Amino acid sequence: MDEKIVIYGGTPLNGTVRISGSKNASLPIMCASLLSSCTVTLTNIPEIDDVYSLLKLLHGCGANTNSYNNTLSISCPKIKKYSHDKIILNRIEGYKKIRHSILLVGALLSKYKEVYFDMPGGCKIGDRPIDLHITGFKSLGAQCKIINDNTIMMSSPKGLIGDEIFLRFPSVGATENLLIASVLAEGSTIIKNAAIEPEIINLIDFLNAMGAKIKIAGGNKIIVKGVDILNGGVTHNVIPDRIEAGTFITMGAITRGDITIEHVEPKHLEFPINAFKDAGVGLDTTKNSIHLDSIDELRPVDICTHPYPGFPTDLQPLFATLMTQADGSSLIEERVFDSRFRYLNELKKMGAQFDIISNREIIVKGHSKLTGTDVFMGDIRGGAAILTSALVAEGKSEIYDSFYLYRGYEKIETKLRNLGARLKVYKSNG
Ligand code: UD1
To answer: In what residue span(s) does the Enolpyruvate transferase domain sit (predicted)?
Structure first.
């Protein structure tokens, strides 16, 4: 059976929604847990498909895991090797399913000195090379060998040695991988022009709780003083998912709803919250909640995505969708990924109007009358944008390939139903 969500649009969302743990914080932290041989406990882990995919990978590496009610314990006293006693990550089922599998390279290279791998999977939102990861590992003294078209080997027979690394772009993934690789390296590592997303701070807090010595200096510089061993016995809480929170703000605003978003850290959303407010969305924040009021008229707002603390690229498709209902045109610039407008084809089928200036810039025209139709998801956040359009579209939308949504949003259908959305979910049995 086709996986699809059927939405009957036009109902304002009302009520309270609780935000789950962050996907993009949970996955790096789960990878980093392999650095310790003892048990670590992680709380607020979302029950989403990307977490399940990574759990399979961790099991493939030899880890034991136990999960219950969003709490996950991981221990990996001994790594599992494959043919000829090698750690071959890309042989493990699920390696190609998620982007985060690449972060296992940092952990395994650091702890076991040699790892075989391939390009990871993940959403198709542009060119997603791993050159910054590889160059960074090389700066730490690792050797890189291309074995064949599908396999790269990184090794550090004498162990990694700290160095100064400058990232030409503050890549989230590269910063995480190099942090994970450098905590057990000899001497100090300085990562300059590092990404400083809240998810990275959450990873640093986890590593420091295990005994790492990491601090953030000014100017996006992260300093890691290598230690000999990381301890277990740590319980670490994952931060709330700021992208899920931004998704519900958009859904509430576009349906002219009245919702309270709980268990969120508004300080992680400062830039987008201001953009929503500029658009006329009534938002009141406390330390851990956001209340959204109905609005009469949405104003057009131009946005440009940037690394944190700028406007998050993951919310670009959602904000652009909101702007289809604004009173005028908005310029949406995508400066992080080079192909993040694919969802527009589907929005167009529903009646959204826009001009594509380049693969980085579009102009979204307001006052678009959206009508339900058959549409297809192509990635997680673009998929959430399509779902959001369907919530406001007149009539019925059938949204296919909805499995993308379950990769990143915990219990999304239940949360939407509780807010009054009318939907039916069809899942495949596989
Ligand atoms: C992560 C998030 C993703 C989010 C993004 C930016 C994961 C799995 N995904 O992706 O949801 O949208 O951060 O907040 O964590 N780049 C290079 N070379 C590299 C690495 C990256 O050129 O070695 C470029 C990419 O092509 C892209 C930009 O840097 O244009 C940003 O990528 P990066 O920050 O690494 O994003 P991800 O870690 O892939």
So the answer is: 8-416
